[in-house]
Structures are given as C-alpha cells and as structure tokens.
Please model this.
Amino acid sequence: MREPNWKQMRERDFSYYMRSLDLFWDSWKEFLMKEQRDAYFQLIVGIKTCTYQNYIEKIRQREREIESPLLESVLQIYSCASRPKWTEDAERFVDQFKTKPVSPEPKKAGMDGGYKC
Model:
C-alpha cells in the first residue's frame, strides 16, 4: 500500500481530505489497540511461563517494527488494580493451558550409575 498524495487530495476537495484523515486516524488507532492487546497477551504468556525476558524482547522488537510504543502501556495496564475486560479474557485464555514454569536447569532423575550398553 502506498501513501496517498496528500497535497492533491487537499486541493481536490478539502472536506474529502479531512474525512480521509479521520478515516486514516481511526484505522491507526484500531491497529494500535490490536497491537496493544497482542503485546499484553505476550506479556501474560511470558509471566505465566517464566520466560518474561524473552517476551519483553518480542514486544520491544514489535515496537521497533511499527515505530510506536507498546511495552510501557501494557505494563501500566498490568499493574492496575482494575483492568479492562479484554485483559481478563487474555489472562483466562492463557490460564486454560495450565502452564507450569520450566526449570532453567535439568534436574537429576535420581538414578545412580544409569544404564550402560
């Protein structure tokens, strides 16, 4: 998708130009809300699976790609006592998987000597 010729649009019909700007702005806000929800979901997955830093880096990478902040807002939402309903839905969805933290270090099986061929 290419950028519109703003000058030509403005000269053609100013009210059309203003309606177009409103439409683009609404589309951008909708896009950012979707991105924020995706970032929040990633944050919750990272917290529940003890892979927080990996998901924080994914959110930061997405910020760089879309050139808009996400991490600060999702951390603020997460820290609020009262959160929007969509956050509850995301947390409930992640909880359905009953994820358990993954041990960063393998644990011994408890067998001495082990099996030898």
Summary: The two ends are 63 Å apart (CA to CA). The chain has a mean pLDDT of 85. Residues 43 and 56 are 7 Å apart (CA to CA).
